Amino acid sequence: MEICVEYQRFLSELPKRDPNRNVAEFDENVEETNIPKDVKEGHFAVIAVNDGKSKRFILELSYLRNPAFLMLLKQAKEEYGFQQMGALTLPCHPEELQKILEH
What we know:
single chain, alpha+beta, three-stranded mixed beta sheet, globular
């Protein structure tokens, strides 16, 4: 149950959506060419970085339910904040992330 409490705490710290903003709104100036071709629908990119080692991963959205991965997101929030653009940077060794993804 502790993971569930941590997950709820993590979600409660996310920026709140503006209720006056129409969810259907979108920026017509965003070009799809900015999205890397290897990031398919239903996936997102992360970069594991630690001690000068880095590796880029393309993950399915289902990893957002993995408790170990959620802890890495929490660490990333604490270290980098919510201002990251593009691929999310995770403060861990690439090998550590690989082990999490294999389980």
